[in-house]
Specification:
- This protein has one domain.
- Helices cover about 60% and strands about 0% of the residues.
- The chain is built from three helices and no strands.
């Protein structure tokens, strides 16, 4: 059976996956919310990082934008975004 997911769900899933890849590629154990801009630039300039599909790369960038927007919202409320992945 094929599962259907929304573009938003896929975008966040891809964004978290790319964040994990960025941490490994750059020798980081944790990722601060401020690093999201660097991750976004890395995804935008790395051809074939996710796949040969520009659509998936675009979704990952949208997911990172969503994480950045959420961080901005949380930061304005005095908190901090924590990116946790399995």
């Amino acid at each position: 059976m094929v599962e259907k997911y929304s573009d938003e769900t896929l975008a966040y899933t891809l964004a978290l996956d790319v964040c994990d890849r960025w941490k490994v590629a750059n020798g980081y154990k944790t990722l601060s919310a401020d690093d999201l801009s660097a991750v976004k630039a890395w995804v935008s300039t790395s051809r074939g990082l996710i796949s040969k599909s520009p659509y998936l790369q675009e979704l990952a960038v949208k997911g990172i934008d969503g994480l950045m927007a959420r961080q901005h919202q949380i930061k304005s409320e005095g908190g901090a975004l924590k990116l946790v992945s399995a």
